[in-house]
């Protein structure tokens, strides 16, 4: 394996060395389910889907865990505002998230654990931390349990901060803490919160702190030590710093690589549910941009770079993708879809270089130019090899236009044949109308097809149809 990944913990690009031959364990921090996902969250899922596809292409068995935070202060606030149980809000958002990821052709994770399903594992970790002097019950009788930051000298190493310069953890009142930087592992029940948001524990009724959830789920599904822990750059501190501290203090070696992706912003500000600048898939659809084009938009940027969203840049990405798609369709019509081919070495080198998708797409663009030239000169041999290579590259990025995920789950080939013959019938009528110089009737056929979303283009090989708008 020659993959190199940027590791936040060492602040360097490192050779990716597997913990166990042939197997990779990846944990990605998933959503806190207080609201439906925005396209910033979805960037996260798509980035790691590309990483996963790249690891799969290398022949590894990948265990990919992406969790759901279904209990949290923010969800409880929503429950209070809406007069609904917190779990109904979390579940509704979970369904929308699953639907959004399906729409974006993100492979289903190996498992998607929910925080509320792992309370016993959290208790086990917290009990050990308390026993070993790394955690303590709050001194104010609140039922909270805090991690003792001063007991862990390595605290701050992931985010490169000196513990002395750190502020209060801000996740609970400082009054019951030994040190304001201590963070909550367990939160005692509060009288004004709904009773169904609490679980019994050795420290009384309460609910988990956010950070301990991920440590427990990593441990449960990937074991004491695993390969890659991912999430957005915004999670480096405090979330991931706290995860490492509490996991290692509990005796778990934990993640070997920390891979963080850049944020999607608007006008320089992070897109956020709480920031009120969130755009979702329905919005993208309202612009006439398809999910596959949004996916291309994400892939066109390196995963660690900021994407500052604008409608123009999204539309440009959609146009660029349509050009690629146009080649794939024309080439497949000419020589058949064929099989996925070999990946060009330039593409492999770019992906191995910390998943440099923008450089990988430059290789694809070069092939596209060659393929288009071959189409126009009738060089079918080159068309066939280029199509196979282009589709193989697109497949790694999850955007092959001929992937059944985009064409309609495998049934599209059958449907395409049916639609083909119906359109042939309509075009035959148009040809007859033209033959008798009845231009009104001929145009009417074309307009009717257009209304049905079918665009007809007259080419030297005869009329060609596509679904969607002509660009
Ligand atoms: N604007 C964004 N761009 C890219 N990734 C994001 C963005 N916002 C959140 N994420 C990522 O999505 C994942 C789930 O995050 P989480 O539910 O904790 O979001 P959040 O930061 O609370 O969102 P918000 O600020 O919208 O409330 C994390 O990996 C986080 O880094
Ligand atoms: Zn997490």
TrEMBL record:
Q: What are the required cofactors?
A: Zn(2+)
Q: Name one GO biological process term.
A: cysteinyl-tRNA aminoacylation
**Catalysed reactions, as listed in the record:** tRNA(Cys) + L-cysteine + ATP = L-cysteinyl-tRNA(Cys) + AMP + diphosphate
Q: Which domain of life is it from?
A: Bacteria
One Pfam family name is tRNA-synt_1e
SMART domains the UniProt entry points to: DALR_2
Motif 'KMSKS' region location, chain numbering: 270-274
Where is this chain primarily localised?
Answer: cytoplasm
Q: Where in the cell is it found?
A: Cytoplasm
Swiss-Prot/TrEMBL keywords: Aminoacyl-tRNA synthetase, ATP-binding, Cytoplasm, Ligase, Metal-binding, Nucleotide-binding, Protein biosynthesis, Zinc
Q: Where does ATP bind?
A: 273
Enumerate composition-biased segments (Basic and acidic residues): 172-181
Annotated ranges, domain Cysteinyl-tRNA synthetase class Ia DALR: 346-408
Query: What residue ranges carry the coiled-coil annotation?
Result: none
Q: Name one GO molecular function term.
A: cysteine-tRNA ligase activity
Gene Ontology CC = cytosol
Motif 'HIGH' region boundaries? 31-41
Instruction: Name the InterPro entries on file.
Output: Cys-tRNA-ligase, Cys-tRNA-synt_Ia_DALR, Cys-tRNA/MSH_ligase, CysS_C, Rossmann-like_a/b/a_fold, tRNA-synt_1_cat_dom, tRNAsynth_Ia_anticodon-bd
Q: Enumerate the residues binding Zn(2+).
A: 29, 214, 239, 243
The first-level EC class reads: ligase
Q: Where are the transmembrane segments?
A: none
PANTHER family hit by this protein = CYSTEINE--TRNA LIGASE, CYSTEINYL-TRNA SYNTHETASE
HAMAP family, per database record: Cys_tRNA_synth
The protein's assembly and partners: Monomer.
The UniProt family comment states: Belongs to the class-I aminoacyl-tRNA synthetase family.
Q: What is this protein called?
A: Cysteine--tRNA ligase
Q: Organism, per UniProt?
A: Micromonospora acroterricola
Gene that produces this protein: cysS
């Amino acid at each position: 394996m020659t993959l190199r990944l940027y590791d936040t913990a060492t602040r360097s690009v490192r050779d990716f060395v597997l913990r166990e031959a042939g197997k990779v364990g990846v944990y990605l921090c998933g959503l806190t389910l207080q609201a439906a996902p925005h396209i910033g969250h979805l960037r996260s899922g798509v980035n790691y889907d590309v990483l996963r596809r790249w690891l799969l292409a290398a022949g590894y068995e990948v265990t990919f865990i992406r969790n759901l935070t279904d209990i949290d202060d923010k969800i409880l606030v929503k429950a209070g505002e809406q007069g609904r149980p917190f779990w109904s809000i979390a579940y509704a958002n979970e369904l929308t998230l699953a639907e959004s990821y399906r729409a974006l052709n993100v492979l289903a994770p190996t498992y998607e654990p929910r925080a509320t399903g792992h309370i016993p594992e959290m208790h086990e970790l917290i009990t050990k931390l308390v026993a070993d002097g790394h955690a303590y019950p709050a001194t104010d009788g609140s039922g909270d349990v805090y991690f003792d930051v001063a007991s862990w000298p390595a605290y701050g190493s992931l985010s490169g901060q000196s513990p002395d310069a750190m502020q209060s953890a801000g996740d609970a009142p400082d009054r019951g803490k030994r040190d304001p930087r201590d963070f909550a592992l367990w939160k005692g029940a509060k009288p004004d919160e709904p009773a169904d948001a609490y679980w019994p524990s050795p420290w009384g009724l309460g609910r988990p702190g956010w950070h301990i959830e991920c440590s427990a789920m990593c441990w449960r599904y990937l074991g004491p030590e695993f390969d890659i822990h991912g999430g957005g750059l915004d999670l480096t501190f405090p979330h991931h710093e706290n995860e490492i501290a509490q996991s290692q203090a509990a005796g778990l070696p934990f993640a070997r690589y920390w891979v963080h992706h850049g944020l999607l912003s608007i006008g320089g500000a992070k897109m956020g549910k709480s920031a009120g600048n969130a755009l979702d898939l329905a919005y993208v659809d309202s612009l006439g941009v398809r999910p596959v084009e949004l996916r291309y938009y994400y892939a066109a940027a390196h995963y660690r770079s900021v994407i500052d969203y604008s409608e123009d840049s999204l539309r440009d990405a959609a146009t660029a993708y349509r050009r690629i798609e146009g080649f794939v369709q024309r080439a497949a019509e000419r020589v058949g879809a064929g099989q996925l081919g070999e990946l060009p070495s330039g593409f492999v080198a770019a992906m191995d270089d910390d998943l440099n998708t923008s450089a990988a797409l430059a290789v694809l663009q070069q092939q596209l130019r060659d393929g288009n030239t071959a189409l126009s000169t009738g060089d079918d041999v080159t068309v066939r090899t280029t199509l196979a290579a282009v589709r193989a590259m697109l497949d790694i990025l999850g955007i092959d236009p001929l992937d059944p995920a985009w064409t309609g789950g495998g049934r599209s080939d059958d449907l395409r044949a049916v639609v083909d013959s119906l359109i042939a019938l309509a075009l035959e009528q148009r040809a007859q109308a033209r033959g008798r110089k009845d231009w009104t009737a001929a145009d009417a056929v074309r307009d009717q097809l257009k209304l049905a979303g079918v665009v007809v283009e007259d080419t030297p090989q005869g009329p060609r149809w596509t679904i969607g708008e002509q660009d």
